[in-house]
Amino acid sequence: MLIRDCAGGVVFSGDKIFLLKNEKGEWVLPKGVIRSGDLPNEVAIKKVKEETGVEADIVTQAGGTSYEFYSVTRQRPICNRITWYIMKSEEEKYNIQKDKFSEGGFFDIKTAMDMITYSQDRSLLSLSYAKYKELT
Length: 136
Hints:
Blueprint: E1 2-13, E2 16-22, E3 27-28, E4 31-33, H1 40-52, E5 57-71, E6 76-88, E7 101-108, H2 109-115, H3 119-135
Parallel strand pairs: 1-6
Antiparallel strand pairs: 1-2, 1-4, 2-3, 2-7, 5-6
């Protein structure tokens, strides 16, 4: 199994969260693979900017998740271990990466909780939102 370390952002603007709809039709949070020599916090900021066009700053670390899948192109199982950061954007301007995502935007928390595809992402959002409200 190939294990990949990744980093991503739980990006808030006021009481809204940013979600992306990927090529599989799944509503997800922005993230990417950590390459050799990169720091997780830098990757999170970079991937949020690349995938969403959103300028966001890290508030604090949110925690971690992991998931496994079979890569058809690599012909082997993959485990992504993701370090998440709670991030804040001062405005709701965005420009999603159209070759990877079909939709995206800031959504109120209740709507986002209904939209998010994976239960561990819903848990992450719930915990992150409580922490975000406490810190901001």
